[in-house]
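Continuing the series of single-chain predictions for the mutant panel. This is the parent chain; the variants come on the following pages.
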Amino acid sequence: MSDILTTSHLREAEHALIEAIRAQTPERVARPASPDPDEILHRIGITYLPSTRPNGFIKLYPHDFLVEELSADGSTVSLSHPSPFQSAEDQRTLWADLIKANISGPHAMSDLQQLLGVEAGKIGYAGIKDSMAVTSQRLSLRGVTKEVAEQLTHDRMMLRPIRYGSGAIQPGELKGNRFTIAVRTALDEDINHLLQKLNSDGFLNFFGAQRFGPRLVAQRMGQKLLQDDAEGALRFFFGEPGPFDIPLYREVRETLKDAFGNWDYMIELASCFPFTFQNELKVLHALQKEPSKTRQALGQIQEQVKMWVYAYGSWLVNRHLSHLVESGQTIAQELPLALSEQGPPAEYRDFMEQDGTMQYLEMLHKYPYVQAARRNIPARIIPEGLVWKKIKQGWVIRFSLPKGAYATTCLSHLFRLYENLPVPEWVKGEEIDVLQAIDDGTISSLRERFASVLIRRDAKVEEKEEEE
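Parent structure:
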């Protein structure tokens, strides 16, 4: 299978170039400081959290952050306690648990499709899991045998066959996720009172930074599309650096911005970074063939375009929640999503008039693969099964959340939550077996299986795993 161009191949090709640049000019691939967590939150519309929260760092190692899917029936797709295989006469569907480490959900599914030799529609899954983490989730695989699944060779994922049967998993067909997380703290602070308050009162359900892409500009691209400005969205897509990009990627973005419209040159430049700019290259090749058909070019990355539009809707929700808290208003039990199929909800009209997006339904007709929906979300969530343990590096915290809720949203109410490079000096760096810390097994077998990728984040060049 060495001839298959997976995301791992793209990553390694780019890594070789990064290492060559590092050898000559190391300052171009290093961030000068760890991004301030409250600045990140402000960029996505969250301004109400107190700055006095203690500092905490997550994901120093991928296995500091475990995510186990809760199936629709409430059962846990366990990382440490695999289910025994059950055979059956009906073998149309193989049900298997996907265990992945330090790879994004979309990249994992793309690699699975290629390595198993099946079409995308033959792989069923309920939701996308975190990238910088070790995660488990249930898959349904059509046309795949137990033997083929067990022989899958990939440095960042493995399949555990569970049973044969029929049917398929549908998107959203899960109850939620259970998180077991090491939070490394600066000081030996007692936060038991904060955890007890979280256990009783819960937290406000804002959309976390993952929703907005690694450059934190997805919402701006969505806004441009809903303003009927596809070219403006493309200019952001190619040329807007993230606020915390390393200098090298900032240089590339700024060069792409200046070269906008010179598709040949832009392709040549982006091809030097085939992993980070793989989606940009898809759009650029389409524009190279038909420069005037911008919406058709965006159709090459439909999942990305969906994410941009939905990120804009999430930005509206976050801004509204912050406004309610800061103005002392009562917060209802539920909030409507901002991009309703029936037109702008009253809660978001002032923001949408300010943003120039009141005609979003008309604009969405131009992107038929992006759907508006009328749905409510809980404004406040109380985590289930919350347990915590003080350790010398900080805290290990376990809790379960319903689908669509973010663990980092929960933790941000407790900590000023750092998770980007460079690692702050105050972080205690010893490895942690988070399952062992809370007396629920061990991560040791998975630590051995994924040894090449379960390494400290700053041990090598940071890899871009989040989807834009």
